[in-house]
């Protein structure tokens, strides 16, 4: 996983706790003197271990922590990748373009990316079906990112996680329902 994801995770921890807490998490779950560089790759197990300890620290389930992290990460992406996403002004257009445009641009910016596959189809205005596939099984992070996009573009979003890799389905199916926030 890219360093940018770990940098953002640090930001999330700092919103709930402090630097001492992040340093403790690092001391336990990363090699000595770890400093994350955004373009470099770090082991997925390191992210998983950090997330597990954040769950203990915040007394929240893994799904909840990944969801919160996704919401935080979306804003982080919008700030740090304005070149790639700055021209999106609607939730729907952004979601429909994650896989075919946004993540494609990301893999041009960085070498050796590990991105998920997310096929999206608009069923009707207000309803998109997304199929998520990834060996990292971070579907709850994907959910959080989508909720984050909803908040960013002032949309009310509901997701029904119909099929799930974590329940041994072949892929995740997310039914995304959205409408302008009331
Ligand atoms: C709602 C919108 C988005 C969703 C649902 C989404 C989903 C994801 C997920 C779930 C991952 C974790 C890797 C995996 O599951 O295999 C990921 C990684 C990543 N995404 Fe996205 N993403 C979104 C928007 C964006 C945006 C706007 C950017 C930046 C322009 C971005 C850049 C990245 C990067 C840099 C990674 C890490 C890749 C790596 O470690 O090699 N994503 N995305």
Question: Can you walk me through this structure?
Answer:
Pfam families: HNOB. There is one protein chain. This protein is an alpha+beta fold and 182 residues long. The protein folds into two domains: 3-59; 88-180, H-NOX domain (Alpha-Beta Complex), CATH 3.90.1520. The chain has helices spanning 3-16, 19-29, 44-58, 62-80, 82-85, 91-109, 139-152, and strands spanning 117-124, 127-133, 155-163, 172-180. The protein has a four-stranded antiparallel β-sheet, with helices on one face. A hairpin with a 2-residue loop joins β1 (117-124) and β2. The protein is globular, with a radius of gyration of 16 Å. Bound molecules: protoporphyrin IX containing FE.
Which keywords apply here?
about 180 residues, alpha+beta, H-NOX domain, four-stranded antiparallel beta sheet, 7 helices, 4 strands, globular, binds protoporphyrin IX containing FE
Helix and strand topology:
Layout (H helix, E strand, L loop, with lengths): L2 H14 L2 H11 L14 H15 L3 H19 L1 H4 L5 H19 L7 E8 L2 E7 L5 H14 L2 E9 L8 E9 L2
The chain binds protoporphyrin IX containing FE.
The site of protoporphyrin IX containing FE has 25 residues, from helix 1, helix 5, helix 6 and helix 7.
Pfam family, one: HNOB
GO molecular function, one term: heme binding
Protein name: Heme NO-binding domain-containing protein
């Amino acid at each position: 996983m890219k360093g940018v994801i770990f940098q953002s995770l640090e930001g999330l921890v700092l919103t709930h706790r402090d630097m001492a807490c992040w340093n403790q998490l690092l001391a336990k779950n990363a090699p000595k003197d770890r400093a994350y560089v955004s373009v470099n790759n770090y082991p997925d197990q390191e992210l998983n271990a950090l997330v597990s300890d954040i769950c203990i620290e915040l007394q929240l389930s893994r799904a909840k922590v990944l969801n919160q992290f996704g919401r935080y990460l979306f804003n982080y992406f919008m700030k740090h990748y304005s070149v790639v996403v700055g021209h999106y002004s609607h939730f729907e257009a952004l979601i429909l373009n994650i896989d075919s445009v946004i993540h494609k641009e990301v893999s041009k910016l960085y070498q050796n990316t590990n991105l998920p596959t997310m096929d999206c189809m608009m069923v009707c205005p207000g309803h998109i079906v997304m199929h998520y596939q990834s060996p990292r099984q971070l579907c709850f992070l994907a959910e959080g990112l989508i909720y984050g996009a909803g908040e960013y573009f002032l949309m009310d979003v509901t997701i029904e996680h119909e099929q799930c890799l974590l329940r041994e389905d072949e892929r995740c199916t997310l039914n995304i329902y959205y409408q302008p926030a009331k």
